[in-house]
Write a structure and sequence with these properties.
The complex is a heterodimer of chains A (547) and B (130). By secondary structure, chain A is an all-alpha fold. Helix content of chain A is 74%, strand content 1%. Chain B is 63% helix and 6% strand. Chain B is elongated and about 70 Å long. Classes of the chains: A mainly alpha (547), B mainly alpha (130). Chains A and B meet through helix 5, helix 10, helix 12, helix 14 and helix 22 of A and strand 1, helix 1, strand 3, helix 2 and helix 3 of B.
């Protein structure tokens, strides 16, 4: 993740000719964003549901495009394209995970929306009463979102420093702080409707830009995709292994089950992110939630294909050596590709780099804002509004804004302090927590009558605890070249993803806790199922009363 | 649904609760039909995508089969992945169409509280294909 060579200033892919336009574009972008923000804030209503869910008024197409925008994050845009460019086939399969994750969401979207709940605490309370599930949900939400925010903010700071031509440690920290402040403002003021508009604007710009750089790269190879792929292979770090499984160094020594588990956990984790659940809940109905997800699937399909072609194009045009010289994970691939597909000194090159810079800034702003907003909603709705005291809507909205600033402040501080360390364990932890604490709980809540409070608490707390323990003792923290402390050796957990052990364990604990205490009656479960299938409440008939 | 389960029915806005055994029987049948139609559509989507996906991931994790060259630099694994991607997008589209055709009419009839002997789409809910 960290740009080791940035601090040495080895490479400047943007070049002095494009620097001024890029900086101007960056400043214009910030100015327009703030203007947009204040316009939104002035017109935003003060009701919590209006702010959190846009009054559940988002149309299928609009929300679907916004959901596709959620998939265009800093990590997918930069790291996935970089992964494809540097590690070929292994990066390619991980790009597909981004798309397949939407399949899990597609199957659950209608039930999530029909439940009428929009935070993890709400969803956990579907089958378990009391404050315990809500507190557990808030902890899980923070455990997922803070690491994701840290990694995305660091990536944003590094990319911004690269684009403005100041690849120093101080510039990276300054850019991280600047982006963090902007995100905090957005998350505190914009609301779901505001962020949705920016997501919707981001999708066509991103797809058009990636299409353009891919076509320009293809033009360099006389429109022959075969030649482009051959060049990508030739200029890779290991031409004989580039398009075969196993080039990813992180997984090489950990056995095939590790790679298999990484894919499964990544898919489940990506599908269960709190900001996606919030977006699903913003749909008008269960049917429109399902339709939105379908729209997101095909737009994300285009995005993933473009990411793959961008990655291979970057490998072919720039070469793995130059990509790796700027960033060990290759996350500068889209920017470097944009700077190499047109002749140096041309106006087109400057425009293309500037547009790519805007795409990166948009990706940072939108996805980090969404994640921050989801965490803030969870704190305001599950913790603040449920503490036993009576709260007005205005107080809850204020709590949300404060929570957004605090969450973002914590993430920015940690990102600025730790940006020089390997951060892969954070992503592994975050994905594993989403996969092991949310996925089993939702599956049991929606489909198993016997699930109850004890099962939920055991599943969620056990999953979270195991994720933390497995992460600490995994090869991402010690004992491997990509570890936080490569020299130390306490990596007795043999897999890279803690979810490989934690997801089955969470399912088992959920079952065990449920069968050792009485569950819902058949009637109670049927009422919940009715709600999940139709989105409306039910009443007992007179025949029930006669019993 | 087991016989001991008390029947349930929606509360249409502004409509008083009514106890009508015939109404309950019809409604129970509709809830069961909706559940079955939903599960059938989900099962088909899941199986069609999960089998090739898990197969592909298992092959690339445990064997070297995906490294086989098919044409030029293109390997079997890459072609498999691209086809997987296309299959996923197409089946997502078909899943939504099938749900809209077979599940949504049942859901609407339940939530409106109006049942007919021949609810549009109910018959097709048990039909084959997407």
């Amino acid at each position: 993740m960290t740009l080791y060579v940035l601090s040495a200033g080895v490479l400047d892919p943007v070049g002095s000719a494009a620097r001024t336009p890029v900086i101007v574009a960056f400043l214009i972008f910030i100015g327009v964003s703030l203007l947009w923000l204040f316009t939104l804030a002035a017109g935003e209503e003060e009701s919590p549901e209006g702010l959190y869910l846009a009054d559940r008024s988002l149309s299928p197409t609009f929300n679907g495009v916004a959901m596709a925008g959620e998939q265009i994050s800093v990590l997918t845009l930069l790291q996935t394209a970089g992964g494809v460019a540097l590690i070929g086939y292994d990066g390619f399969t991980f790009a597909l995970d981004v798309l397949i994750a939407l399949g899990v969401l597609l199957l659950l979207a209608q039930r999530i929306r029909n439940s009428g709940r929009y935070t993890l605490g709400d969803l956990f309370s579907l089958r378990a009463s009391g404050r315990g599930p809500r507190i557990a949900a808030a902890v899980v939400t923070l455990a997922i979102t803070i690491p994701v925010l840290m990694v995305q903010l660091v990536a944003a700071g590094i990319s911004a420093a690269l684009l403005i031509g100041m690849p120093t440690d101080e510039a990276v920290v300054a850019c991280t702080l600047l982006m963090g402040c902007l995100v905090a403002c957005f998350a505190a003021l914009a609301g779901l409707r505001g962020t949705s508009f920016i997501h919707v604007a981001k999708v066509p710009i991103t797809l058009a830009t990636l299409t353009l750089v891919t076509l320009l790269a293809l033009r360099k190879f006389e429109w022959d995709p075969g030649s482009l792929l051959s060049a990508a292979v030739d200029r890779s770090v290991a031409p004989d292994r580039y398009l075969k499984p196993g080039l990813w160094l992180d997984t090489a020594g950990l056995g095939p089950l590790n790679a298999f588990g990484n894919h499964i956990v990544a898919i489940l984790g990506l599908a269960m992110m709190p900001h996606l659940i919030l977006r699903i809940a913003g749909s008008r109905s269960g049917r429109t939630a399902r339709r939105s997800t379908r729209t997101a699937v095909w737009l994300s399909g285009i995005f993933v294909l473009l990411l793959i072609t961008t990655g291979f194009s970057a490998a072919a045009v720039v070469g793995a050596a130059d990509l790796g010289a700027v960033d060990a994970s290759g996350q500068s691939a889209p920017i470097q590709l944009a700077s190499e597909v047109l002749g140096h000194g041309s106006t087109g090159r400057v425009v293309l780099i500037t547009v790519m810079a805007c795409v990166v800034f948009l990706a940072v702003l939108t996805t980090v804002t969404s994640v921050t907003f989801a965490a803030a909603v969870s704190l305001a709705h599950d913790v603040f509004a449920r503490d036993g005291r009576s709260r007005s809507d205005t107080q809850e909205v204020r709590a949300l804004r404060l929570a957004a600033v605090v969450v973002c402040g914590v993430a920015v501080s940690l990102a600025a302090a730790l940006y020089n360390y390997q951060a892969q364990f954070l992503i592994a932890f975050s994905m594993a927590v989403a996969a092991s604490c949310i996925f089993p709980a939702l599956i049991y809540s929606f489909f198993w009558r016997g699930f109850n409070r004890r099962g939920l608490l055991w599943s969620v707390s056990g999953g979270l605890l195991l994720c933390a323990v497995f992460t600490v003792f995994s090869p991402t923290v010690s004992g491997s070249p990509i570890a936080l402390w490569p020299e130390a050796r306490f990596d007795w957990y043999p897999f890279q993803s803690p979810g490989l052990g934690a997801v089955p364990a969470a399912f088992f604990l959920g079952w065990l806790g449920s069968v050792t205490s009485p569950g819902d009656s058949e009637t109670a479960f049927r009422r919940i199922e009715y709600r999940l299938l139709t989105g409306t409440e039910v009443r007992r008939q007179a025949s029930d009363a006669r019993r | 649904m087991p016989p001991h389960v008390p029947p349930i029915s929606p509360i249409p806005p502004g409509r008083p609760a009514a106890s009508d055994p015939a109404h309950d029987v019809v409604q129970l049948r509709h809830i069961g039909s909706l559940r079955e139609a939903t599960q059938r559509a989900q099962r088909a989507f899941l199986v069609v995508n999960a089998v090739p996906f898990v197969g592909g991931i298992a092959l690339s994790s445990f064997t070297d089969v995906p490294a086989l060259r098919v044409r030029g630099e293109l390997t079997l694994g890459m072609i498999w992945g691209i086809l997987q991607c296309g299959l996923f997008v197409v089946t997502a589209w078909l899943y939504e169409n099938r749900s809209a055709r077979s599940c949504d009419p049942l859901e609407r009839s339940l939530t409106s509280g109006e049942f007919h002997a021949e609810t549009p789409g109910a018959a097709r809910a048990t039909g084959p294909g997407w």
